[in-house]
Amino acid sequence: TVLGMIFNAIFIITDGIFVGKGIGSDALAAVNITAPLFLINTGVALMFGIGASVVASVHLSQGKAKVARINVTQAIIVSSVLLLIYAIGIVSNVERVAVWLGSSERLLPLAVEYMYWFVPFLVFSALLCSGMFFVRLDGAPNYAMVCNIIPAIINIVLDYVFIFILKWGMFGAALATSLGYIVGAVMILAYLFHPERILHVCRVKLSKKSLYLTIRNVGYMCRLGFSSFLCETAIATMMFVGNYVFIRYLGEDGVAAYSIACYFFPIVFMVYNAIAQSAQPILSYNYGAKNVDRVRGTFRLLLKVSVGYAVILWLCVELFPQIFVSMFTSDAALLAFGKTALRVYLAAMFM
């Protein structure tokens, strides 16, 4: 799971490296302007992924495999419908949304171009994100890891081809990311549509009673996963406010420097997230089976590993900030500002 999430982080960071080196600092800033949209999308995916997997874990521990399948199916359908509506709303008002997110006139064409080719495919990103929980819960963490690795490799290769060889600019960067997410989502669906899996997509009835039960179950999933959605929304809000502040006081170059720090954030978040996701099926299953000691032991191990990782990564950033910043830019002024920004920004990783 950790390896899979590291590749997921590489997926995101690769865009920043290729955009910064291949298109320029304005393009880097434009991508950062659109980042809150992606985070909200991820928040919805995590809310349904975590919520449904917790419910399904408890049902599996009680021998109710059919109910667990229904929970997974309901989560996939409802989250996909919500995020399709979300994407349509953004694409229908793309310039207005970009300005609302803090884009300047100089960054607006770049932000709009990126959004047109990225936002419509957000539902595939969400399917990949939430589907990982279900695949791991079904006992296939290695397959879940591969579902992250293959899209990351596709994104890296296509980013290079589209940006450096074909010179497609922002269109190429967005298309490379979107195609990577599509492949990952198809891999997840191929697994979940296989009828021999314990957890697989099943037919949901459309009777009045079934719709009522779907609403009830979705509400329960959302309550369980809402904290994760809130966490992603908080990060989105932080980036949204940060973009506004930097564009006002330091201009486009300030947003570019801020974006470098934000691109580094997945290295922190994805690994923490992976540690928590690895523990979740063990915690939920043993909670359902009333193995309290197993639940507490797992939770203590979770905390130890998380804090240990934070200490190691924090030391790396404090000692060698230039190595990380130089991955994204060769601009001397941006390097000098970015080093300080990264040290300050990641000082909170323990929290």
Proportion in helices: over 70%
H/I helix tally: 13
DSSP summary, beta strand count: 0
Radius of gyration: 20 Å
Mean pLDDT: 89
The secondary structure category is mainly alpha
The major β-sheet equals: none
Gap from first CA to last CA: 22 Å
- Helix/strand order, N-terminal first: HHHHHHHHHHHHH
Low-confidence stretches: none
The share of residues in extended strands comes to under 5%
What is the approximate shape?
globular
Characterization of the model:
This protein is 84% helix and 0% strand. The chain has 351 residues and is mainly α. α7 packs antiparallel against α8 (169-192). It is globular. The two termini are 22 Å apart. The model has no long low-confidence stretch (mean pLDDT 89).
Index terms:
351 residues; 13 helices
Write the layout of secondary structure elements.
Elements: H1 2-22, H2 25-61, H3 65-92, H4 94-100, H5 108-118, H6 122-137, H7 141-165, H8 169-192, H9 208-249, H10 251-288, H11 292-319, H12 321-325, H13 332-345
Helix pairs in contact: 1-2, 1-7, 1-8, 1-10, 2-3, 2-5, 2-6, 2-9, 2-10, 3-6, 3-9, 4-5, 5-8, 6-7, 6-8, 7-8, 9-10, 10-11, 10-13
